[in-house]
Write a structure and sequence with these properties.
Oligomer: single chain
Structural class: mainly alpha
Shape: globular
Strand content: under 5%
Distance between the termini: 37 Å
Radius of gyration: 23 Å
Length: 363
C-alpha cells in the first residue's frame, strides 16, 4: 500500500508539473497555489479513478491505459491548454522571443527524464516481472525511434537537426508508448515511435501556425502537442496494437475483452477489436470533457479570489517581482534584491536588527 500511495502521488505531481509548462511566464503564483489542490482533487482524481481503479466505470468497460497516456498526459495537455486560455498570453515580447535559458541543462534534464521513464512505465505492474521488462524495453525503443524521426523531419524541412527538436521527439515518443508499454510487441513500439515522431511534429510545426485558435492560446512549452496529441495518439494505437497474450498477463478479471484491433482482424475477432478502439476513443472524449469543464470552472472560481495573471509590470520584472529573488546573480551586475531575506547562503546578513529579533523570537 505504501508503494501504491507513493507511486500514485508521484504520478499526480508529474501531471501538475506538465500543466504548469503551459502557463509559464504570466500566471499569478498565488493563483497557482490555489489551482494545484483544486485541480488535483476535482479533475485529476476523477480521471485516475475512472480508468485505473478496478471500480472505475472506464476500467470496468475495458479502457486500456497501461501507465498514464490518458490519466497523466492527455489530461495535463488539455488542462494546460484550457488554463492557458483563461490566464491569457505572456507579454508580447516573450511570445515573440522566448529562447531556452540553457540548452545544456535542458539536455541534462531530458536525460534524467528519459532515464526516469524506465521507472515510470516499468513500475506499472508493481512487480519485477516480464511485463515490467517489456514495458522498459518498449519505452526506450519508441522514444529513440520518435527522436530520430523528429530529427529527420527537422533536417528535411528546416535543414538543421535541432537539439530542442530532438528533446521534443524524445518526449512525444515516451508519452505515446506510455498507455501501451507492457501490452504491445516490440515491432508495434517501433511503429508507434515513427508516428509519435511525425504526427505531433506536424501539429506543432505546421498545424499550429495555420489554426487561429491554436495560435491565440499561449501554450508556453507546447504541452498540448507533446502530451495531449501524443497521449491521444498512444491511446488509439494501444487499442490497435494491444496483444491479447500480453494483456492477459497484465490485466485481471475478464481478460478476453482486451483485444487490439490488429489482433481482432488477425484472429477473426473483429467485433472485439472494434469495440476496443471505440472504448479508447470514448476514454479520450471523457478525459477531454472532464478537464475542459473542471479546469475552466476552477480558473473562473480562482479569478473571483485573486487575479489569474501577473500585472504587466510584474511580468516585465520577472522573478524578483514574484519571489523577491532572481534565478541568476551574475558577478559584476552591482544589483541587490531589496525584498529578499536570502541574499546569502545563511539568509541573515542583510536583515535589519528588528528583522533579526523577529526571526529569533520565531525560532
Amino acid at each position: 500500500m505504501a508503494t501504491m500511495v507513493f507511486f500514485q502521488f508521484v504520478f499526480a505531481a508529474i501531471t501538475l508539473i506538465l500543466v504548469a509548462g503551459a502557463l509559464l511566464g504570466r500566471m499569478n503564483f498565488h493563483a497557482w497555489m490555489l489551482f494545484v489542490p483544486l485541480w488535483l482533487t476535482f479533475s485529476y482524481t476523477v480521471g485516475a479513478y475512472s480508468i485505473w481503479c478496478p471500480d472505475g466505470f472506464l476500467s470496468k468497460a475495458g479502457v486500456m491505459d497501461f501507465c498514464g497516456g490518458f490519466v497523466i498526459h492527455l489530461s495535463s495537455g488539455v488542462a494546460g491548454f484550457t488554463a492557458a486560455y483563461w490566464v491569457g498570453p505572456r507579454a508580447s515580447n516573450d511570445r515573440e522571443r522566448f529562447p531556452p535559458n540553457n540548452v545544456l541543462l535542458m539536455l541534462a534534464g531530458a536525460g534524467l527524464l528519459w532515464m526516469g521513464w524506465t521507472g515510470f512505465n516499468g513500475g506499472g505492474p508493481y512487480a519485477a516481472n516480464g511485463v515490467a521488462s517489456l514495458a522498459v524495453l518498449n519505452t526506450h525503443v519508441c522514444a529513440a525511434t520518435s527522436l530520430l524521426v523528429w530529427l529527420l523531419l527537422d533536417v528535411l524541412f528546416f535543414s538543421k537537426p535541432s537539439v530542442i527538436g530532438a528533446v521534443q521527439g524524445m518526449i512525444t515518443g515516451l508519452v505515446c508508448i506510455t498507455p501501451a508499454a507492457g501490452i504491445v510487441q516490440g515491432w508495434a513500439a517501433i511503429i508507434m515511435g515513427i508516428l509519435s515522431g511525425s504526427i505531433p511534429w506536424y501539429t506543432m510545426m505546421v498545424l499550429h501556425k495555420k489554426l487561429s485558435f491554436l495560435k491565440r492560446v499561449d501554450d508556453t512549452l507546447a504541452v498540448f502537442h507533446t502530451h495531449a496529441v501524443a497521449g491521444s495518439l498512444g491511446g488509439v494505437l494501444t487499442g490497435f496494437f494491444a496483444d491479447p497474450h500480453l494483456t492477459a498477463l497484465f490485466y485481471t478479471g475478464d481478460v478476453s475483452k482486451y483485444v487490439g484491433l490488429a489482433y481482432g482482424l488477425k484472429d477473426g475477432r473483429l467485433r472485439a477489436g472494434v469495440r476496443q478502439m471505440l472504448l479508447q476513443l470514448g476514454g479520450i472524449a471523457f478525459i477531454v470533457a472532464v478537464n475542459v469543464v473542471v479546469t475552466s470552472a476552477i480558473c473562473v472560481l480562482i479569478s473571483r479570489i485573486v487575479p489569474l495573471r501577473l500585472s504587466e509590470e510584474d511580468m516585465q520584472v520577472g522573478d524578483d517581482a514574484i519571489h523577491g529573488e532572481e534565478a541568476y546573480a551574475l558577478w559584476g551586475d552591482g544589483e541587490k534584491l531589496e525584498k529578499s531575506s536570502h541574499d546569502s547562503v545563511y539568509g541573515v546578513e542583510e536583515l535589519t536588527p528588528e528583522e533579526l529579533a523577529k526571526a529569533d523570537r520565531f525560532a
